Amino acid sequence: MPLLRATNNPRRLNEIRVRVIDDPNINAANAGGGEFQVTTGLLAKANDEHLRGVLAHEIAHDDLGHVARAQTLGTGLNIGVILLEQLFPGSSAVTPIAGALIANSYSRSEELEADRHGVEILRRAGYSKEVMIDTLTWLLQTSGGDSGGGFLSTHPGIEDRIDALRKLA
Ligand SMILES: [Zn+2]
């Protein structure tokens, strides 16, 4: 998994868990301890590049040790395995599990930091910062109307974050 190998503190694949949440909103979270959560709404609507950008951002939160302030949002069901297999290829350690979304609310500075570090991780894995800019722009356009449970509700200030990434060298 190129993105996971590009972190400052690489986790072993057998430490990684991906939980798929049955929620039509587009969202993703880092639940701490190597567990990442994605909603079925994200898997259904994101293309590969958008999913890569979202995961780079969440992996960056994990790599930077941002503390997850958890709230539970709904219950889950296990689908979307095929898409996840492309991102975490061939690892039986990656077990999509039904569960509840951990909605982390981060501070604005943590969001900016995770975007910047996400770009660094993408670059180490051979991608450009445009992946992150395109992903945030897509999230803004696609989940802009979400009142609850969407990416924007747990990852605020997205317009400013896009501007900050454009200025990044
Ligand atoms: Zn974030």
Ligand species: zinc ion
User: In one word, what is the shape?
Assistant: globular
Assign a percent range to the helix content: 40-55%
Q: What is the averaged pLDDT score?
A: 76
Number of self-contained structural domains: 1
Q: What's the gyration radius in Å? A: 14 Å
Indicate the low-confidence ranges by residue numbers: 69-83
Give the biggest sheet. 3 strands, mixed
**Total beta strand runs:** 5
Structure report:
The longest helix has 17 residues. This protein is globular. Strands 1-3-2 form a three-stranded mixed sheet. Strands 4-5 form a two-stranded antiparallel sheet. The chain has one domain. About 10% of the residues have low confidence. Helix 3 crosses helix 6 and helix 6 runs antiparallel to helix 8. With about 170 residues, the chain is mainly alpha-helical. The protein is about 45% helix and about 10% strand. The chain is built from eight helices and five strands. The site of zinc ion (ZN) has 6 residues, from helix 3 and helix 5.
Summarize this, please?
The protein is globular and about 35 Å long.
Task: From the structure above, extract its key features.
11% strand, binds zinc ion, single chain, 169 residues, globular, 8 helices, two-stranded antiparallel sheet, mainly alpha, 3-stranded mixed β-sheet
